[in-house]
Design goal:
Largest sheet: 7 strands, mixed
CATH class of the largest domain: Alpha Beta
Strand order of the largest sheet: 8-7-6-5-4-3-12
CATH architecture of the largest domain: 3-Layer(aba) Sandwich
Order of helices and strands: EEEEEEEHEEHEEEHH
Number of strands: 12
Shape: elongated
């Protein structure tokens, strides 16, 4: 198998390939499909003398289902670790700023971000003593249901915030060591991780079955067309072939019996 398709990225009691596929179902209706998303993991460590001095993580995502066909673009979750600053950032590659978004907007609220941030948190916990850089929550992003969802999103990973308003519209996360971050597996309720070869093999098998069924249906249509043509050209012969003989033969037998009876009685 190609290296990028092997399960080489460990996650507690399981592992994922560098390139894998997410089957996303609706959060409130897990039996209903929503989207398929291709995920590529990119890790770039800077190691010297057996020590990791810096490391970056990119989780690149591309919707690939018919519901969200091209030109829907990619979206990326990024993170970084600096040994020099004893710091780890969960929402970007540079000190200061940073944010995470799932696009298009219709995909938000279905635990896709939870799956990706769960991987980021698992990755960051490699350096348990590193301080998690503060995450700033903007007031203009904190209104209504979107704001509540944003706050719950971060808090489920153990992040605590010093909110600046009673409505919890804005605030900053309180510094904490990465080892205190909490991994969240709530995404398992409506997201399944698939290996590409398995999904492709299943799709090819389905395509073959569909092709065979289509071939059978085409043959059936052609046979029916020939039958119709015969019926139009030679209706009496066609009727006999289709079972009218079951009516004619008993009639003939009955007639012969009647003639025989008449001859005997006269």
């Amino acid at each position: 198998m190609l290296p990028s398709l092997e399960r080489s990225y460990p996650r507690d009691n399981y592992s994922v390939p560098r390139i894998h596929l997410l089957e996303v179902r609706q959060r409130t209706a897990p039996d209903k499909g929503l989207a398929w998303i291709l995920v590529e993991i990119e890790e770039e460590p800077s190691i010297s003398g057996g020590v990791t001095h810096e490391a970056s993580l990119r989780l690149k995502c591309q919707p690939v289902s018919p519901t969200y066909p091209p030109p829907h673009g990619t979206f990326t979750f990024t993170a970084r670790y600096w040994r020099m600053f004893n710091a780890v950032k969960l929402t970007g590659l540079d000190l200061g700023g940073g944010a995470v978004f799932v696009d298009p907007g219709e995909l938000r609220g279905h635990r896709i971000g939870t799956y990706l941030m769960d991987y980021v948190v698992h990755w960051a916990r490699q350096w348990p003593d590193a301080i998690v850089e503060s995450i700033k929550l903007q007031a203009d992003q904190g209104k209504g249901e979107a704001g509540l969802r944003r706050n719950r999103f971060y808090e489920q990973f153990g992040l605590r915030f010093d909110y600046t308003t009673e409505e919890r519209l804005a605030g900053m996360s309180i510094p904490m060591p990465a080892g205190e971050l909490v991994e969240c597996r709530a995404w398992e309720q409506n997201i399944t991780v698939h290996e590409l070869p398995t999904v492709l093999a299943r799709q090819f098998s389905t395509a073959r079955e569909t092709e065979d069924e289509l071939s059978y249906l085409n043959k059936t249509v052609q046979d029916q067309a020939r039958e119709l043509q015969i019926a139009q050209l030679k209706p009496f012969r066609w009727a006999l072939r289709q079972g009218w003989q079951s009516l004619v033969i008993p009639g003939v037998i009955t007639l012969m019996a009647a003639i025989a009876y008449w001859q005997l009685t006269n």
